[in-house]
Write a structure and sequence with these properties.
Elements: E1 3-9, E2 12-13, E3 26-27, H1 28-41, E4 43-44, H2 47-56, E5 64-70, H3 74-87, E6 92-94, H4 97-102, H5 107-117, H6 121-134, H7 139-149, H8 158-170, H9 173-187, H10 192-199, H11 203-211, E7 215-216, H12 231-248, E8 255-258, H13 266-274, E9 277-281, E10 288-289, E11 301-302
Parallel strand pairs: 1-5, 1-11, 2-3, 4-5, 5-6, 6-7, 8-9
Antiparallel strand pairs: 1-10
Bound molecules: zinc ion.
């Protein structure tokens, strides 16, 4: 069989009764129910099965399903790992290196937690625009930014996408960093370093995933939009993430790349071929078919596409 249902997870945790009622995540009970559903309707395969399928043409079982967990959250160690072990199935985990080893927040996660802390996103948009004005951005430029970036997505309103895009890449890096840090302080109310320790797995926890039979692959070093980086910077991202995989005892030949934000370009694909990468997973939404999709461009479903 060549078809493969790949499911993507991010935050999986007890949300009700926590400090983060508004975080866009999957409630742990929903995850357990979904795991039961997937186990009943699919054959949950291992990363190694997928690698063998693309490398030596080994058949996948009927209704093959592959579970992937992005971003190295402590959620995955605390809540996901025990459930996978109970069921006797493997998950594939893709931690970006910098938050794990340097205990620093990724912008994307700071932005999630700012958004989860506001009651009215319109006020956040006003705050963000004021921060931009402090950096000399004019009202005319803000209007153009709004027109370009305030475009609703599959799950987010135009206001949320505007905040995300400006703080993820539309503004210059130094501006983004300072504004994100200011908004984080104002809305979340604790330091980003303290928060990083709560949010991400430690290196020891990543090693424990591997010891428990889980797969760990690359999600880059700094979690960048690789398609916006030059070839040299992309190579550094890939090389540094491979050094990390080697340090934690994960495989570095016929390994798996999970593109941050699903973003890549031809340079990425060339570099991955050179670095003996077997499989690349994107955020394009579809059922993967090994006969149809290039092995470095595999689409994935989101957890929200299945019963929870
Ligand atoms: Zn990610």
């Amino acid at each position: 069989m060549s078809s493969l249902t790949i499911v993507m997870y991010h935050y999986v945790r007890p949300i009700k009764g926590s400090d983060w009622l508004n975080i866009r995540g999957l409630e742990i009970e929903g995850f357990v129910r979904q795991l039961d559903y997937l186990a009943q309707n699919y054959q949950i395969v291992m990363a190694e099965d997928v690698i063998d399928a693309v490398r030596v043409g080994k058949d996948l079982p009927r209704n093959a399903c592959w579970l992937t967990f992005d971003d190295g959250y402590k959620d995955h160690y605390l809540h996901v790992l025990p459930e996978l072990c109970k069921k006797g199935v493997q998950g594939s985990f893709f931690p970006p290196v910098k938050p794990i080893t340097e205990r620093l927040m990724l912008d994307v996660n700071s932005i999630h937690h700012i958004l989860a802390s506001v009651n009215d996103v319109n006020l956040l948009v006003l705050d963000l625009n004021n921060e931009c004005r402090n950096f000399g951005i004019t009202d005319g430029e803000l209007k153009l930014l709004w027109e370009e970036y305030a475009v609703p997505s599959r799950y987010d309103t135009k206001e949320i996408i505007y905040v995300k895009r400006l703080l993820q890449h539309a503004l210059s890096e130094s501006m983004r960093n300072e504004i994100t840090s200011n908004l984080f302080k104002k809305y979340v109310g604790i330091s980003q370093t303290e928060f990083a320790d709560q949010l991400y797995m430690s290196e020891r926890e990543v090693k424990e995933l591997i010891n428990a039979g889980m797969y760990v692959g690359s999600h880059g070093y700094r979690h960048l939009w690789l398609n916006k980086e030059d070839r040299k910077s992309q190579k550094l991202e890939i090389d540094k993430s491979l050094s990390f995989l080697s340090a934690v005892g994960a495989r570095t030949v016929d390994w798996i790349m999970c593109y941050p934000y699903g973003a890549y370009n031809q340079d990425t694909l060339d570099l991955l071929e050179e670095a003996k990468c077997a499989v690349g997973i994107t955020t394009e939404v579809a059922k993967a078919d090994l006969n149809l999709h290039h092995r470095l461009k595999m689409p994935r479903f989101d957890t929200n596409d299945f019963p929870q």
